[in-house]
From TrEMBL:
Protein name per Swiss-Prot or TrEMBL: HAD family hydrolase
Alphabetical list of Pfam families matching this protein: Hydrolase (PF00702)
Stored SUPFAM superfamilies: HAD-like
Presence of keyword Glycosyltransferase: no
Example GO molecular function: hydrolase activity
């Protein structure tokens, strides 16, 4: 029999996009940016970087490449949290709003970091009132889905436990009426694992 499934977002839940952003800036412009606000939700607010446009923006964008998506560091406590969930009897899958061409790099990154994850579903980052991840969650039918971006909880199957990771609060989109979509709210993935396993033990 197949094991029950938990679906996890990557950036901000499993891996640290903010640190990766700073390294991409260093590769593009030769200097690791100073930190402006460690509690900023968006990386351009966390780091002391200029607002780019035109050719400089295009140049920076080229550094979000195979190297970038395959070398992001793990979020604190995330690898251990995943192993706890797996050891409790759950299989884990990553559902990421990533371009399909980077799916293999993302999986390689997760595996090299030691995450017990064998599948990545790259959904793309379409705008709209329904999450670009909703179709993947509909097909996978996990018991729970964990994301750090509240709008990506929209349009999900009602039977899936939707968990929101809040992490950095400054400038966060994780506020407002859509908070009712989250069945549980946590500071990080370790917090979700604590909650989920405590519920399981009852």
């Amino acid at each position: 029999m197949s094991r029950p499934l938990i679906a996890l977002d990557a950036d901000g839940v499993l891996v640290d996009f903010h640190v990766g952003y700073a390294h991409a800036w260093q590769r593009a412009f030769g200097q690791f940016p100073a930190e402006r606000d460690p509690q900023a939700y968006w990386p351009m607010d966390r780091w002391q970087v200029e607002r780019l446009e035109g050719e400089r923006l295009t140049h920076f964008g080229r550094h979000f490449d195979e190297q970038f998506w395959s070398t992001l560091p793990a979020m604190d406590g995330a690898v251990e949290a995943c192993h706890r969930l797996q050891e409790a009897g759950f299989d884990l899958v990553c559902v990421s709003a990533l371009e399909a061409r980077h799916e293999a790099a993302r999986l390689r990154n997760l595996r090299e970091l030691g995450f017990p994850i064998e599948r990545v579903h790259a959904t793309g980052n379409a705008s709209g009132t329904r999450s670009p991840k909703a179709d993947a969650i509909e097909a996978l039918r996990p018991l729970a889905f964990v994301d750090d971006y509240l709008p990506y909880l929209r349009g999900m199957p009602p039977e899936v436990h939707l968990a929101l990771v809040t992490r950095a609060p400054n400038g966060s989109p994780n506020a407002g009426e859509d908070l009712r979509l989250a069945r549980s709210i946590h500071q990080d993935l370790a917090g979700f694992a604590d909650h989920w396993l405590q519920q399981l033990a009852r």
